[in-house]
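Before going further, learn to read the protein records used in this course. Taken together, the tokens spell out the fold as the letters spell out the chain. A record is reproduced here so that you can trace the correspondence yourselves:

***
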Amino acid sequence: MTWYKKIAALGQNIQFVAFWAHLGVAALIVENLPHPLIALLTITFVACGKEFYFDAKYETNPPQTFLDNLEDLAGWFVGAVVGYILKEVVK
């Protein structure tokens, strides 16, 4: 059984899990780098390329749809914004 089928067998939607994983990683990156706005913008642009080019072309098991990639990108972006807020607003 593959990893995504194991997660699905637990009753979890794999895209929901992926969204939160992307969010957590992006928030940690932005919060721990010295220039959070630059990190936020960099993560957003790099994630666009990763999700809409690399994942669309090379993630074939399971195949990625545009909406899967969009949800992953949303996770990266929301995570970067959360990291920025935690670093700059909450302090």
